[in-house]
Every structure is written in structure tokens, then in C-alpha cells.
Amino acid sequence: MRQSGAPRDEKQRFPDKPKEECGVFGVYAPGRDVARLTYYGLYALQHRGQESAGIAVADGRRLQLYKDMGLVPEVFHGRDLDQFKGHAAIGHVRYSTTGASSPINAQPLVFRYAGGMLGLAHNGNLTNVTALRARLTSTGSVFQSSTDTEVIVNLIARYSQTSLEEAVMKCMIDLQGAYSLVLLTERSLLAVRDPHAFRPLCLGGLENGGYVVASESCALDTVGAQWIRDVAPGEILMIDENGLTSRQGIMPRRRAHCIFEYIYFARPDSHMDGFNVNRVRREMGRRLAREYPVEADLVIPVPDSGTAAARGYAEASGIPFEEGLMKNRYIGRTFIQPNQDMRDLGVRLKLNPIRDVLCGRRVVMVDDSLVRGTTSSKLVAMLRDAGVQEVHLCLSSPPVVRSCYYGIDTSNEAELIAAQKPLEEIRRLINADGLHYLSMEGLLEIFGDRRDDFCTACFTGDYPVAVPEPSTAGKFSLES
Amino acid sequence: MRQSGAPRDEKQRFPDKPKEECGVFGVYAPGRDVARLTYYGLYALQHRGQESAGIAVADGRRLQLYKDMGLVPEVFHGRDLDQFKGHAAIGHVRYSTTGASSPINAQPLVFRYAGGMLGLAHNGNLTNVTALRARLTSTGSVFQSSTDTEVIVNLIARYSQTSLEEAVMKCMIDLQGAYSLVLLTERSLLAVRDPHAFRPLCLGGLENGGYVVASESCALDTVGAQWIRDVAPGEILMIDENGLTSRQGIMPRRRAHCIFEYIYFARPDSHMDGFNVNRVRREMGRRLAREYPVEADLVIPVPDSGTAAARGYAEASGIPFEEGLMKNRYIGRTFIQPNQDMRDLGVRLKLNPIRDVLCGRRVVMVDDSLVRGTTSSKLVAMLRDAGVQEVHLCLSSPPVVRSCYYGIDTSNEAELIAAQKPLEEIRRLINADGLHYLSMEGLLEIFGDRRDDFCTACFTGDYPVAVPEPSTAGKFSLES
Amino acid sequence: MRQSGAPRDEKQRFPDKPKEECGVFGVYAPGRDVARLTYYGLYALQHRGQESAGIAVADGRRLQLYKDMGLVPEVFHGRDLDQFKGHAAIGHVRYSTTGASSPINAQPLVFRYAGGMLGLAHNGNLTNVTALRARLTSTGSVFQSSTDTEVIVNLIARYSQTSLEEAVMKCMIDLQGAYSLVLLTERSLLAVRDPHAFRPLCLGGLENGGYVVASESCALDTVGAQWIRDVAPGEILMIDENGLTSRQGIMPRRRAHCIFEYIYFARPDSHMDGFNVNRVRREMGRRLAREYPVEADLVIPVPDSGTAAARGYAEASGIPFEEGLMKNRYIGRTFIQPNQDMRDLGVRLKLNPIRDVLCGRRVVMVDDSLVRGTTSSKLVAMLRDAGVQEVHLCLSSPPVVRSCYYGIDTSNEAELIAAQKPLEEIRRLINADGLHYLSMEGLLEIFGDRRDDFCTACFTGDYPVAVPEPSTAGKFSLES
Amino acid sequence: MRQSGAPRDEKQRFPDKPKEECGVFGVYAPGRDVARLTYYGLYALQHRGQESAGIAVADGRRLQLYKDMGLVPEVFHGRDLDQFKGHAAIGHVRYSTTGASSPINAQPLVFRYAGGMLGLAHNGNLTNVTALRARLTSTGSVFQSSTDTEVIVNLIARYSQTSLEEAVMKCMIDLQGAYSLVLLTERSLLAVRDPHAFRPLCLGGLENGGYVVASESCALDTVGAQWIRDVAPGEILMIDENGLTSRQGIMPRRRAHCIFEYIYFARPDSHMDGFNVNRVRREMGRRLAREYPVEADLVIPVPDSGTAAARGYAEASGIPFEEGLMKNRYIGRTFIQPNQDMRDLGVRLKLNPIRDVLCGRRVVMVDDSLVRGTTSSKLVAMLRDAGVQEVHLCLSSPPVVRSCYYGIDTSNEAELIAAQKPLEEIRRLINADGLHYLSMEGLLEIFGDRRDDFCTACFTGDYPVAVPEPSTAGKFSLES
């Protein structure tokens, strides 16, 4: 149980994408195998976090917890899930946005407080956590981890003179920023979403009764649950032996759903807050084609994140779609890095250009976003090596110019290429014949009259909730 | 080091596909990091075998070997490849076709014999191994594994009075069946292909000198080697300090390249024996569309194996292509199986239908082949759950009706649904509205005047090399 | 990170001894490798706890922590201790007395509170922890583990308006029971001993400056420190850049050093609170010989715990000492248990009688204590099998009749054979020809005019600090 | 499965002792749990080899094998021994004497040959293995490991035209050097001892029928078998459904039992070839006292190997015996080494002087042997630090001046301090006040009229079997 030091496998991540955040899952289903349902639910949410995974199960009397660093199947490999009997469970997959990559920061947290036992799993990021933590420590709280989540836990404990729901409501008055929470007591399951509804959270029903909540609807599908609705901004759902009750925990504010979920994070088969992810991505590609029509022979995606948009581009432009880059499906986290002798092979290990398809062609290459630009320039070079005549790089999102404070680990602004350099210079740096970002307007039009319901801060700097001083963003850690 | 017992994770394999066989890789490149090149080469060949991996390195004086059960990155995780210095190396990824799934059967084999040290890695399957092994044991040989490869090793040792090349030539007279071999001595690298050229094997060149041999050209791409040519039927390539020499080890027989490499096994970005895999698959889809034109709203693939053919079908039919089934990319080998409570979730964990795309539509679902039919019937049920109106299942290969004895683990004939039931009954069993296999003629036409250069035994029973008695096929094991 | 469930390897412990408790270690030595010194110190204290181990290091700015389940070398195997740079460190080895055997209960605890960061390691057991925890939760504290230690942590945090030393002093007013603590801040090391001084704690000096505190003096020897003195009852030692300062944290009460440390727990090469452990044990044997003189041919120990006393018995009686039972030094924690077929082999795997030495002899077998009696009866049977004529079992402690509430895991009273049955019945049950316990008076006389300085509650029921209701003793857990 | 490279944990061994060799175990007992009996038997033999362990089980039809690197409990931890059903089994623990420390060299070997399947485990070392291997490879044998054992396997296979017993007899004509073998076929168990009977091997009987063979009698005790007799020089024991049969495989030569078994290797509770190990060691001490009477206050052993001799010295001299050095029982293989800062702590981690016992005293320190002298000089320094006035080092064996070629890994002669320097210089180097080796004559007298039955080559250079050229001793490896 390491509590500090460098995140493991740090160098093995492909650095040119915003990092995934977290996924949460909860199920209340007496008579069902809730631990196993949660295991499969987390499996479906694995793309939202690959650093740690955990499940807590309630059986009416107590909570049992198992969590560790690693992918869902790694963490639970060899575990006898049948030992985790209960009627309700919550689960979490994590990619660290705050707090070091460390076992002590793995979730769910399970703790004992005046109200009994409580388990909690959190997706999102608070913006006022430093102030809240200071307030709590000044009156005697202690913190063993560097997560936002432990702050929420302590706030709930402080407010626990009456019911848990009321404690959560009081807590919501304190919390600023993004939080989609699932809570587990000995006898009930709660789901909570912040008043802006930054991060997704939806509710489903199981065939023979029972409810499921999850970050994305694909997890409902996986466990055989029917989607019912999204959890509303500021809503508290409580599920127990009396069934499902809802209350407004705090007044909703303007919706600010993370738009990057649609661009990159969410699974294409999920729908959230009214939109199907795959459809949105396809439409981004169509709009790209209209905004940036080029003479070309092929449209190719950067798999997998650019595939849907590339297909949209091809449809709208009439240019044939081809899979010109073959992805190695076995690239994992324990990959040995190339040394000096092979320094140019890095991207090629992951993506191999199909020369047959590409040689002599003019190509539109579609990706979802450009963060630091390093991978893109290698891809362009690789395409040229494969005999491509022209490369036009089309991105299905506007330029990322600001950091996110609501649960996504974009690089800081000094590393964001679009924050530092004009378009033409970027194009030259990556040696593309053309470079086009989807316009902000083009992106928003996809959502029609719902266009104002999204957080676009990373493109516009228009932060729905006040952000901390730059110097402290993402810097708090137990070690500081 | 387990030498017997049930293969691990047996139940975790999706049982409805022919099993991948093995992949081999070899490099001769003094001055380069040959161990690391082999590591990356095996990475690119990982789809050919996920049970064990190994690398042997020669430094002019000795051979060093490291191998274990697991994926390439698992086997070498934490290994310091820099310790494996040398000028030549061979590597192997394995999916057991003969011999139990056991560390003792992992390859390469490295052994000491009268000629010094020798490493050997094998892709393929011998048909006369029982007779050869009996002949060898009767004159004093011992066998520690149940692999064909150890038989080849012992034959070479018996013929080693003169040069290794001559020993290999004598050995080729004895061997019947499929073998693509790479051999490593202290000072040289050899590549050998059987006279029918069942399994692929190609040669590439490195920029600053040095040669690479690999099962598929995608491995050449990955390590930055230029494709030179395929190894010829019956050819022995020898690479040492004097460069590359070729000799005809045995008279070539009629070519019998495994046609299933093009249908399912090989990576789409590989080209082998004159044909690009991706193009062949696309063309299969186009021919499917012409052979079986249906009224439908969508063409969807069963990802990833049906993707290229589905795209071809869409092109030829004009019916829009959609990714209607979302694949969970994190499904791995250590997956905990659903229990009784969730027995219908098995396929859904791997593939999730996108309801938005599918609901109310008539769908052509394209897959590469139908072996036992169990997965297909679940997929059809899942599509119907998602509101699909009609499902037409199109397969880009003819019915698989016979077992393979040349290195592929198809089920035995009693389990092959097409060997047991007429088309219409299969259609009814899987509850599809239509079912169509690509015709044998349609398949062969793709290869034009080269149509007779392929082994089609699994479709036709036309075995290019006499096969063993049914009772002994694939049954030898150390335990027997 | 398992937080509940059955302790692992529970069945593999030999159940007939009181369980070891915990060991603590601390070092303040700028310029030295404090992590490694702590590692070796814990190594020397390994006999005090084999379930988990941990080290926290302070570098003036922050605390780093590593801990896990397992023996010291297992926990730190493959860890690069050189990464843990600092000027002070604390360490802990644990055998769970309260709290489940679980990673979440491993120590040290490291947490952030109003005063900065604090690390804490604890040996002992509080008797009023349930009341303290209730008081804390009622005012908003949360508990993630089931250890006493987390209660101490929260109390300190509540009292942290002024200095840490004052917070510890306030905390000592609340705490009842046994505690030897080491605390680590960014810049200082503290050592605290309860006012009865139940558990040992001593201070040593390093050659070039620097201080060490440890549960036993053998740990000072191991790291090359000179013993200075024992920490006094109720004393707080503070070591920082200004050197060592001492203050009386709370008024000392009557000394109540655990007498079982001398009988069984402590290493023979330690001296604590004025007495050398080996000498005390030897003297126990001498007194046994005088209290229970028998006609016998040999004195044999039950190794290793009975060895020193057996030697004393031999000296005083003149009967030759022999090692009649050979101990297998490789018995470890991962031992596969005998099944029905071999149910009588259990003790024999650990101890083998040397027939040559024993056959035909009358034997005095010396052990340190008798808890449940199960092992003793097997040993007697084994000796008789080896041809022993007479077996006299002599125990170097009085009958254990009461549970310990101060940090030792004796069985509960229903399982203590001496609490349930008269001496003669016990003798018959274990089938010995004679059975003798060292008398209480004989034991105390060893300590001369210090005889009243010890806790003898497990023999006498004379508890120096009020004990909790029987029903709650050792029963609190996070799961309850 | 590493086949080459440096032995793991090489540096963690305390280098100043001859290395243990191997232990073998076999059981034939239909109806009993033979795998588990073998597991416990290997446990009792663990002191003979800690690098790898393995068990092969025969069920009348086939052999199952499991082996790996590590201690017996580590190798079989988590294994379900109940899966290894059978009526006979063999096992092996190994410390590499020839062959690298590598999984490929772990034993038993299990192989298929003309006669069916055969398992083989070997304790000892052949002196003509290079010639035998050359002869075999020249006629077509291949070797996958660098062990002597694979050579024996191949010889047996070559001679297998008739029965296995006859093949073994022919093989014994070829083999020179030391070998105690257990062999396992589908239906029988064999035990074989070389004509000099270098290494121990004994036979025992189980209560309800069934036989056990083992390197040492302590393993018989552990599994509840009664010792019957030692296997005779050149004898072949065959156990099958017809019971036990014995035949003289080869004419016995002069007995040459390894005398170092009695000095250091064997467990004290074993008796072998007519002598109880503990008694021999005690007598060595008595003779030491007579040969080297000194004025001293205490006799202390270097635990554990010097304990029995120290006790003998004390008895004969009348000087009190004390345990002046406390051994840390938890020192294991995964121990992190001290760095420069703590370079003098090395021995202290393992052995701690008890100052109370030692301070101001004149001490006789008894150890079994002196190989390189490095540890002894540290021990003497440590004793002086603890206030010892005089240190007389007494060794219960004569000076080790020659290498062993029969299965023990003494250092080579250049490293043997007694081969390089005169006694007085050694005494000065280790800074002892006196140094005495047991005389050759004194050692041999212990064995009375059996004094010529032992191999004393390491003391005398009188090798019973011709040894290989120095340059090749112990140097063959697969890599050479």
C-alpha cells in the first residue's frame, strides 16, 4: 500500500490525450448477485479509469470492501465474488485526477461514522477542496488520502445528527465543482449529482425489480438493466426496501454537462443527457466535412477515438472511408518502451499504416482532439513514409486551450499546443498539408436548442464554477 | 512449471472461433538490439497466439532464452531486455494446437546437441508426428514435452553429422504437414518453410543491413523492416556473417497456403503470398453482397473479424455501413465468468448493441465464419432485443465442415454445426431471417489465377497431405 | 486492499500460544539512511508481529509511507529503499489484536491534520476505545479501520490547537490501557509510553548523533545503536533538530510491565525495564527445578520458547540437558495443512523427536506456558512413541486463567485450559506423568524488590486498568 | 522459465558455508495421499535445497508433474494437492551444484521414452558427465538443461530395449561419481544408490503397507514411516504392486559416505549409514575439547550449525555452555542488503551477541567449519565489541582444503582460506586469541572401525573417484 511517490507506469501512457477520469456504479437488488453485477458494470466502465478498481457490498448489517490497483479483471482475478453476498453494492474505476496514483486513493471509501457504516464512490473534481479540507482539519478532522472523496466523507460525518439524506443535502451546499456520487449504507443505495450535472449519471431498472445507477448507460446494458432516465442536476436518489425516492438535494444551476464526454471519453454505445454518443460523433464528422471540404481520395480515422467522426466526414463528403491505420489491440499497460535504437517505432507499435490502402493517395485523417501534438506529427510522418501524397488532419473538436477543473486531466495550459501556437504554426509543426478543428459553433449546433447545457470551458475558458488559483490546480497531495 | 493438467483459463475463451495458432519471428542484425526488435515483432504477432511467449538470443558464443506463459507484455514485464545482448534472435507466440497448454510446451526450444546450441520456433502442425516420435524413442530419444517441435529438434540432432543445413534437409524429408520454422545457432539464423507453404513466412530487410523473418508482414512494419519477399515452399534461408543464402531444402509441392489466414487469422495490414489481407476481406464482402442481395437498412459487422467484409458488403450493396455492435476493448483472459444468475450476459459483456442505430431496422450482420453457432444465436437474440426487425447473417467464408490438421484448432467435426446440419436448420437454430455463406467459387475467384494455390481442406475435405487417423488427431499428450 | 473477511492463513497458526502483538521502531538521524535502519530494526522485531509491516519516512517537508501485509522482507522485497530519503522514520510490525487482519489496519498510519502531517505506530491495546470512538463519531469523526490507533489519531487531531506535545498530553488523559507509541512529523520524532508502562519501549543513541526508539533493545543492537534507557511511564520523548527533550506527559501510575514479555514474547537478547530476558528465563527454569524436583534422565526444551528455562532447570537439577525435539526451521505461513489421512502429523512437521536421545529415558520437558493444551498432548504422545519412559511437563509460568486486555491475544477464558480444569485433570488429558507450573511466588521472586512492577493479570485477574465488559473485548470490528 | 543468467538472490546467501546440495523423496503407497506425503517429506528435507522444489505423481496410467523455483511451501502455495491423485510419487528439493539456478534445471524430470513415461530425481554429482554428454550428443541426443540428471535420463532411454531395471544397471556402468536416485514409472518406484554410496538414501515402511525412500531419515519420521534400512552401495530397489525387490545394480566399491553430511548438512535428528547425526556432532565437540583444552568462562555455539558440537565441548571441558549469540529466525532469502552506511551490520542482522552473557568473559566459540573466513572475523569483532575478553574459535572439522566433486558446492580452492594460508595467519586474520580445527584423526575415531567408510576428500584430497580436470569442474552450462 504505497501512499506516495511517482505514479506507476507513468511513462507508458500515450501522452497525447486528455486522461479518462472515473466511473461509478451502484446496484440495489436483493436476491441478485450484486457483487457480480457490479463487477460487470465496472467492466463496461473500464474505459473511464484503468488505475484502480473496487467494490463494496452491503448485506443489511455491514459493508464489505475489496479494492486494489489495476484493471477490473486484474483486481478481482482469483477473488471469489461469491463471498461478497449482499443486497446492494457500489463500485468504482479510477484514473487519478487529484491525489497520487496510490492504493490509499483507490475507491470506494468505506468508513464508520455516527450513522453506522457508509461507502462512497465519486466521479468528478471539487474546486474548493483546499478550503473545505482546511476548515475540517481546523476542527479536528484527519485525512489519510489526498482525494476529494475523503473530504466529502468527513463533511457527511459532520452533518450526521439527523438522516443521511439531510447530511448529504447540507454537504451539497458546501461542495463546489463536479460530483456524481454513489453511496452505500448497510441498507440503502444513494445516487447524487451536482447541480450543474457536470459528469454523467443515469438510472436503470432490473427485470425483476431492483435498480442500477451508473456513469454511462452502456453499463446498464451490460448488466441487463433497462435505462430509465438520467439523474437530474442536484438530485438525490435513495433506494431501499421501500423502493426508489427522489428529492432535490440542492437547487439546480445551469446545466454544464462535460462536452468532452461526447468528443472522447464516453463509450459510443452510451447515451447521456439526451444524446447518443455515437450519433454526436458521427455528426461532428459531417460538420467537419462541411466546414473543411478538401479534395482527397480517402478518409481515415485515428482508431478508435476518431472512427465515428471519420465515418461522418466520409458520408458528408462522399470521399471513401478506409481503415488506413491498423491498431494493435494488445497494447497494454505493461509495455516495454523502445530505446534509443528504435525511438521512431513508438507510434508504429500501436498503429500500423496499411500501405496498400494509402500509397499515392490524398488522405483526410480524422482524430477527436489535439492536445500536445506529439503523436499527430509522428502519425503524419508515418503516413508520408507509407507513400501518402497529402495529409489533412481534421479534429472533431475545437482547439483545447484551457485546463479542466471538473474531473478531467488535460495537461496544463503551457503544454496545450493550441494555447501556445497559432493554427498555421501547428500545421507546420506536424507537417500536415491541412489542419482543421471543428468550430465551436459547429460543435454546439449539434446539440440544437440544448446547446447551452454543456461545459465548454476547455475550449472557451468559460468556467461554470469558479476555479482555484492556477498554482493549486491539481497540486494538492498528501505529500505537500 | 506445470507439465500437465487442464489448460488454464480454458473456460474463458470464446469458443466459437477457430483458434489462432502460433507466430514466429527472427532477426539477424549485429549492432542492433535484437531482443527488443523481437519483443516488438512478437507484439505485432500477438493475435497469432496468446498463451505463451519466448525469445532466444544468440551472441556468437551461446544462446540465452526467456519464455513463460502469458501475453508478450506479461511475459517480459519487468525483464531487463538490455541483458539479452546478441546479434541474432528468434521469438515465438503460441496458442497450443498440439500439446497441453503448459510452460514445458512454450517455445522457442533451446537445446545443446552435437553441433553446439540450437534454438527453434515452429508454426504449424505435423501429420506424422506419432510415427516420427515412435521411431525416435525406439532408438533412445526422450521427450519432455508433447510438442511437434521437440520431434523436429530430435530429428535434426540425429542428422547432425555434417552441417546444420544438411541436417534440416534430411529432416524435411521426414516431416509431413505444415511447418514454418525459425532456427537460431550461436552464429546464424535459419528460416524454413514446408514444401506446401501452408503457414505464412516472409523476409524483410533492415535499413542498415540485417534481416528479419516473420509469420506476417505486419511484424516487419512494426520493427521498421522493408518487406523483401515471402519464403518459398521448401526453401531454407540461412543468414550469417556472410549474408543471406537460400537453398531449396526439398522439392516444392503444390502450394497450399492456408486460406483461413485471409478469412480470419492474419492481421488486415499484412500481405502474404501475394495478397493483402484487408483487400481480400473487403472483396469477400463485395462478393457476399452480389451472391446474397437483400433488402436491408444497415450492414453491421461482428467486430473486429467481420469489419472488413461488412464494409465490402456495404460498398457493393449500397446499404449503409454502421457499427451496430460496440466491442468492449478490455475483455481479457482473466475475466470472471457469469454465474447462473446472469447466464445470458455472456456475449453482452463483450458486444453491446447500439439501440439507437439498430432499433426498427433490417440488418445484414457480417461475420467471418460460423463454427459452432452458439455465439451467433446469442447475437441474433441480442439484436432482436434491441428492436432489430430483420437479421440476415452473412459469413465471408464457406461452411466449415472438416477439421484442420495443419496448425489450426477448429473444433472436431462433431462440433462443427455446418458438418452436422443443413443450412435451413442452422438458420432456424440461430433464429436469423436469412443466412448466407460465401460460396467456395466466390471465395476462390478472389484469388484469380492463383486460386489453386490454397488449402481449402476445412471447407472441402481436400487435404493436400495425408491426415492422421481421426482418433489420434491432436490427442497425443505427455500424459497419455 | 481487503478490508474485511477472514484473516488469511488463520488455520496455519499453531494455536496453542498467546499471540505476539506488535513492535514499533523510530529513528531520528539526519544524514543516515533512516529507511534502511528502520527496515533492519523491524527485522529484529519481526517476532513481535508477522502479519503486516510498514515504514514512514520524514524529510522535513513531507511523509512517505509504504506498508503491506506480510513479513518485513516480503513487504519490502523489490522496493528501492533508497527512494525513501529523510532524516527520521518510524516503523511497525503487526499481529492483529484488535481489528481484522487486513491491509487497512496495517501501520504506521499517516495522515494530514491541522498541524500538518503525522505518522503514528502503536503497540498495545486501549480498554476504553469503544467509548472514545463513540464520542468522536458523535461529533463528526470517521473511521476507516478498526484499530485503536485510528482513535488516537483522531484524538490528537481534535486537540491540535496548540503544539503536538500538548495535544499528545491531552490525549493521554483520555486513553486508558496500554500504549507504546512512536510519532513522526515532518521534522520530529516522538515516543510515548502509557503511565503504567505496560508494553516495553527503550531509547538508544547512534554513534554519530541521532536517536533510536524501539520496543526491544535487540533492535538497537541490530542497527548499531547504544542502549540509553527505557522510556519512563507516562513520558513523552521529543527528538528534533534541537536534540532530545523529555517531559512527563501524564503522572505515572504503578508500573505494570507485561510479565509475559519475559516469559514468551521478547527476544532473549533483549533487556527491558531492568531485566535481561534470557537471564530471567534461565532463572525461571532454575526455580522450576527447585519447586518440582523429579527423578529423570534428561531435560529437554520445547524449542525455541522453552530452551532457556530448560537450560536453567538442567543447571539447577543436575539432570543433563538435551535437544530431544528437532524443530523444522522452514515452517512458514504458507504451509499446506495435513488432511484427514495425515491428521496426526501436524505437530511432527514442526517438531521431530530424536529417538536416539529419548528412547528409554525419563524426560523433563520444559515449555514456557500452557494455553489450550492441544499441542502439549500431541508432544507427549510423540515422545511416548519415541520410547520415552516418563514425561514430566514443566511450565515456566503459572497457569494462564484470564484474558489479556492490554495488547496480547490470549484465547478467551473458555478456551484457557487452566481456567477450566484442575491441574490433575489437565495432566491426565495431556497424558503426562507429571505436570508442574512455576508458582506465582517463584515467578515474582525473580524480580526481587521490583516484584510489584509487573502486570500479572493473566495469572491473577488483578487488572491494573479497568477492563471492558467481557462481551466487547476484542470484538469491535469495522464489520460489526 | 529462465534458462540462463545469474542465479537470483545470489548475493543474499551468507557465503561462508559449503552449499547444501539436493534432497530426494519417493513414496509408493496406493490408497494414501502420495502427493501430500511427498510435500511433507520435502518439507523435512528443505535444508538440503532451497532453490527449487517439485513433485511427480504416478497413477498407473500417466505421470503428473509440478515444479518451480522457490521453497517447498512457496512452490506449492495455492496448489490443490488433492488434484495430484496417484499411488506413487517422487519429489526433489534442489540447490544447484551443476547447472545454472534456473527453472529448466528444476527436478524431477519427467519424460517419455520407448518404455513409457519416467520421472527422475537426483542427489549427487557425476564426475564424467562431460564425456557422457559428448558421447550421447554425437549419436543424436539433445539436452535442454545443464543438469547431470538429463544425462542419466538419456542413458536410460538408450538402454531401454529390455526392462527399466536392466537399463538402470547398464547406466550404472557408465556413471561415475555420486548419485542417489529415485525413479518413477506409471506403475513403480525405484531407488538407486551409487556403488560408493556417497550421498545418503534410506528406506522406510508405512503403517498400512507402502514404502518410502528419502535422503534422510528425518523425512521418514515426518511422514510417519518407520525406518527400515539404508539403501546399500550399488543397490537398486524396485517397489510396485508385487512389493519390494532389491538387486545389486553394480558391484559395490569401497564405501565413501560424505563426511560433511555429519559435520554440517544433515539434520541432527537424522541417522544415516549407521550413525546418528546429533551424536556424531556432540562427540566432535567432546574431542575438540580434549584436543584443545583452554581456560575459558563460556562455551558458545555459532547457531545453529555449531550448537551440538559446542554442547559436546562444554560437557567434556566442564566449561558452562551459553547461547551467547542470538539468531534472528526470520532471516530469509528476500533480505535487502545493507548499504555502505551500514556495512558492518551484515552479520549482526543474523546474529546478535548477548552482552549480558558475554561481557568480560573468555569464550570458546564453536562452529562446524571455516570456508572463507569472512563471517568468522566479523563474529570475533562483534564478540569483542560485546566486551568478550578472549575468543577461541574451535571448528568441529579439519581444514577444508580441496573442492568437492560429488555434490557439494564448496568454493574453489583459491577461495578456501585453509588451502591458502597457514593456521597462525588465519588466526591473526580473524583476530581470534586461539583457533583450533578438529584433527582428521579425531574426526575419524568417532566412527570407530567404520572410519574408512567415508569420503574425506575435501580435507585430504583423497578422491575415491577420479575427478574431472580442474578447469571443467562445475563449469559446464547450457550457455558454454
TrEMBL record, chains A, B, C, D:
<keyword id="KW-0408">Iron</keyword>
<protein>
    <recommendedName>
        <fullName>Amidophosphoribosyltransferase</fullName>
        <ecNumber>2.4.2.14</ecNumber>
    </recommendedName>
</protein>
<feature type="domain" description="Glutamine amidotransferase type-2">
    <location>
        <begin position="22"/>
        <end position="242"/>
    </location>
</feature>
<keyword id="KW-0460">Magnesium</keyword>
<feature type="binding site">
    <location>
        <position position="455"/>
    </location>
    <ligand>
        <name>[4Fe-4S] cluster</name>
    </ligand>
</feature>
<dbReference type="InterPro" id="IPR029055">
    <property type="entry name" value="Ntn_hydrolases_N"/>
</dbReference>
<keyword id="KW-0328">Glycosyltransferase</keyword>
<dbReference type="InterPro" id="IPR017932">
    <property type="entry name" value="GATase_2_dom"/>
</dbReference>
<dbReference type="GO" id="GO:0006189">
    <property type="term" value="P:'de novo' IMP biosynthetic process"/>
</dbReference>
<feature type="binding site">
    <location>
        <position position="305"/>
    </location>
    <ligand>
        <name>Mg(2+)</name>
    </ligand>
</feature>
<feature type="binding site">
    <location>
        <position position="404"/>
    </location>
    <ligand>
        <name>[4Fe-4S] cluster</name>
    </ligand>
</feature>
<dbReference type="InterPro" id="IPR000836">
    <property type="entry name" value="PRTase_dom"/>
</dbReference>
<keyword id="KW-0479">Metal-binding</keyword>
<dbReference type="GO" id="GO:0000287">
    <property type="term" value="F:magnesium ion binding"/>
</dbReference>
<dbReference type="InterPro" id="IPR005854">
    <property type="entry name" value="PurF"/>
</dbReference>
<comment type="function">
    <text>Catalyzes the formation of phosphoribosylamine from phosphoribosylpyrophosphate (PRPP) and glutamine.</text>
</comment>
<keyword id="KW-0658">Purine biosynthesis</keyword>
<dbReference type="GO" id="GO:0009113">
    <property type="term" value="P:purine nucleobase biosynthetic process"/>
</dbReference>
<comment type="similarity">
    <text>In the C-terminal section; belongs to the purine/pyrimidine phosphoribosyltransferase family.</text>
</comment>
<keyword id="KW-0315">Glutamine amidotransferase</keyword>
<feature type="binding site">
    <location>
        <position position="368"/>
    </location>
    <ligand>
        <name>Mg(2+)</name>
    </ligand>
</feature>
<keyword id="KW-0808">Transferase</keyword>
<dbReference type="GO" id="GO:0004044">
    <property type="term" value="F:amidophosphoribosyltransferase activity"/>
</dbReference>
<dbReference type="GO" id="GO:0051539">
    <property type="term" value="F:4 iron, 4 sulfur cluster binding"/>
</dbReference>
<dbReference type="InterPro" id="IPR035584">
    <property type="entry name" value="PurF_N"/>
</dbReference>
<feature type="binding site">
    <location>
        <position position="367"/>
    </location>
    <ligand>
        <name>Mg(2+)</name>
    </ligand>
</feature>
<dbReference type="Pfam" id="PF13522">
    <property type="entry name" value="GATase_6"/>
</dbReference>
<feature type="active site" description="Nucleophile">
    <location>
        <position position="22"/>
    </location>
</feature>
<feature type="binding site">
    <location>
        <position position="258"/>
    </location>
    <ligand>
        <name>[4Fe-4S] cluster</name>
    </ligand>
</feature>
<dbReference type="InterPro" id="IPR029057">
    <property type="entry name" value="PRTase-like"/>
</dbReference>
<comment type="pathway">
    <text>Purine metabolism; IMP biosynthesis via de novo pathway; N(1)-(5-phospho-D-ribosyl)glycinamide from 5-phospho-alpha-D-ribose 1-diphosphate: step 1/2.</text>
</comment>
<keyword id="KW-0411">Iron-sulfur</keyword>
<keyword id="KW-0004">4Fe-4S</keyword>
<feature type="binding site">
    <location>
        <position position="458"/>
    </location>
    <ligand>
        <name>[4Fe-4S] cluster</name>
    </ligand>
</feature>
